Amino acid sequence: MLLSYRSGLYLFFGCRWVLLLMGLLIYTKSGSVTPGLLLAAVLFHTAYSLLYVFKMNRLAAITAASFDTGFGIYLLWLTGGLSSPFLIYCFTGLFMIKRFVTWRKYYPICLSYALLLPAIFALFSEGPALKYLLDRFDYSFVVLAYFSLISFVQYTLQGVRKQYRKLVMIYSSRFMARQPMKQGIVPYMEAMLKKVLDEREVILCIESARQSEKVQSWKHTYFTNYMKQNTPPRRQKMHAKLPSPTGELEAMYVQTLLDRSGKSYGWLLVKAEKNELSILHKIYIQFLLMRLETFHFSDEELLDAEEKAVATERNAIAQNIHDGITQELFFISIQLFQLKNALPAHAREEMLPYVTEIEKMVKESHRDIRQYIIELKNEKRKFNLHHAIEKLLQRITEHTDVQPVFEHIGWVSQEQVDIEGAIYHLVEEAANNVIKHAKAKHLHVTIEVTSVQWTIVIKDDGIGMKKVDVQQEGKFGLGGMESRIRALNGTIFFQSEEAAGTTVTAIIPRERGTAYV
Q: Where is the Histidine kinase/HSP90-like ATPase domain (predicted)?
């Protein structure tokens, strides 16, 4: 409470001095103020104020507050009872009792005091108690005003304390940088937002490149996919009715999450009716989203650093293999060739099959190691398929006029390596064809995964082809695409018209046991 601080005490006792002087002034006009009464009131209030300002222990403070209440009753008895001009002054003395009791106990104490005063003064009056109360009916208004005042103070203090705790929680989150990394940024920030928004349901839909690190719930994935397909452009904040996974419309406050470059990286959904969130709620949301953006920026920086470190290490390993084992195998193959040619005629028929077999095994090992080197230097086996394809498209279109657009719908926590490799190579080959032959301005790649299949759609707005024949020689590797997909029991379709672009659609079945979100 404010009376726990010295500034609050100064304000409180200053107001009580004003009430005391006003009571003395009013009583002077209606009756005579004896020097003894004036001296007693001023001395007592001065001593009482000084004792509190210079801090007393708890027992002394309780004793002083009790004595102040008793002195107030005595002052009222001397100056007219319930009609005394010091009535409000005496009631304000009850504020000091609040320092030692809870609000639940404070209200009965105030009510007992309000009932005790008329009972005491009616007892010493000459007439009946009921008549005494009726003659001083304005006392009930004073009591009502006092209870209204303390109720307002309680409500205000509770509101202030509640908002203060929220601000402290938001501020203290800046010192808890390690905790979000342990439990996950999204659950941590959702818990914080839920607390400051008075336990409303909060859903953070984050388009993270590192989805494999933290599997999102099915509800997060549902709303993330819905927002990708239905978010209106240039609307950062809005209220909307969104369909829940069960088909019911739910009122949501929606805010698009933007990084420091202005690019969207997700959405905040708060279950709330229009105008239900207060200004303070929205201010707290902005504070926490600033913290979330900091986490996101740090994560992106760490991701880039990790990618560079991994790429550097992989390239170093690939270079060491190339300079070491590959060169040794190459020299071995040369020596085997020389040995084969140097075999004498009488031993050639017997030894040649063995030498040829060794030479074949060396060539196969040489080819396999070269393939490992290629894969080490390739980005396809980095963190996850979506991120690898996004990097692939950026690399292929980097110094061209083609604008890549990549969209992925659904997500799996794990997939067979041969399926991921086939999808990656399909996109790589199709994108290279667009760059080399299509003369396109835009390249759209959409990858959708369900529990049943992968669907890959690669579309451009280039010059297209008059006729698509995958068997025709020189048709930009269409046959290779088809054979790669069919090897996985998939199907592939090519649709192209002259001056209308080309669309490649591939469908690859999945194993039902693989996890899907």
A: 418-512
Q: Which residues contact 492 (CB under 8 A, 6 or more apart)?
A: 481, 482, 485, 486, 504, 505, 506, 507
d(CA 373, CA 368): 9
Task: Describe the strand order of the beta sheet including 202-206 as a list of residue ranges.
Answer: 202-206, 264-271, 249-258, 237-243
Strands (E), 244-351: 249-258, 264-271
What is the tens place of the pLDDT at every residue in 106-135?
899 888 888 888 888 877 776 666 677 777
Count of positions (residues) in the chain: 517
257 vs 477, residue with greater confidence:
257
CATH number 3.30.565.10 is the correct assignment for the domain at 385-509: yes
Radius of gyration of the chain (CA): 41
User: What is the phi-psi region of residue 476: left when phi exceeds 0, alpha when psi lies from -120 to 50, beta otherwise?
Assistant: left
**What integer is the mean pLDDT of 73-85?**
79
Reference 374, options 317, 426, 306; nearest CA is 317
Contact 267, 257 (CB under 8 A): yes
Query: Per residue in 342-393, pLDDT tens?
Result: 778 777 777 888 878 887 887 777 777 766 666 666 644 445 678 888 888 8
CA 437, distance to chain mean position in Å, is: 44
Given a contact cutoff of 8 angstroms between Cβ atoms, the answer to whether 505 and 493 are in contact is: yes
Which of 421, 428, 442, 422 is closest to 392 using CA atoms? 428
Nearest Cα to 218, choosing from 457, 444, 423, 515?
A: 515
Cα angle value 442/402/296 (rounded, 5°): 85
C-alpha 482/C-alpha 388 separation (Å) is 22
What residue has token string 């063995």? 354
Q: How far apart are the first and last CA of the chain?
A: 51
Strand order in the sheet with 442-449: 403-409, 442-449, 453-460, 502-509, 491-496
Distances (CA, A) of 30 to 23, 80, 339: 11, 10, 134
Q: Is the pLDDT of residue 238 over 80?
A: yes
* DSSP helix, strand, coil percent of the chain (3-state; round to 5): 65, 15, 25
Residues near 92 by beta carbon (within 8 Å), at least 6 away in sequence: 15, 16, 19
According to CATH, what is the number of the domain 181-277?
3.30.450
Rounded to two decimals, what is the model's pTM?
A: 0.45
Backbone region of residue 234 per phi and psi (left: phi > 0; alpha: psi in -120 to 50; beta: other values): left
